[in-house]
Amino acid sequence: MNDDHTPTWPYLGRTDTTDGVTVVVLHGELDLLAARALAATLDDLTGTRRPDLVLDLRAVTFIDCSGLSLLCRARHRVRYASGRLRLTGLTPGDAVSRLLELTGLADAFDLLDTAAPGR
């Protein structure tokens, strides 16, 4: 496991790449400030050919339209590059799940079981 633990406080916990799958751990509030801080990092990760990205959202406590836009942008960029984006760490009723349901985007993202974020 390549464990480069890239902290970008306060929104990005770490980024790990294993077998070509990049797992990005996000935490805190995904709002306008977070979206601005994370946009360049996610653009770098989704700007490669056939990116395989997992966003771990277990520690996200709040998300607004800016955070949702960030997720949708990453999804669009990955699809354009013939890659794969999956979300993990969602539980029924959490902030991200509720917003995805309310906006009708719950089926727009591939979801992973929390126990296996890199698979």
TrEMBL record:
Domain of life: Bacteria
Gene source species: Streptomyces benahoarensis
Coiled coil: none
Family listed: Belongs to the anti-sigma-factor antagonist family.
Protein name per its UniProtKB record: Anti-sigma factor antagonist
Pfam families in the record: STAS
One function term, GO molecular function aspect: anti-sigma factor antagonist activity
Alphabetized InterPro entries for the sequence: Anti-sigma_ant, STAS_dom, STAS_dom_sf
STAS domain ranges (all copies): 11-119
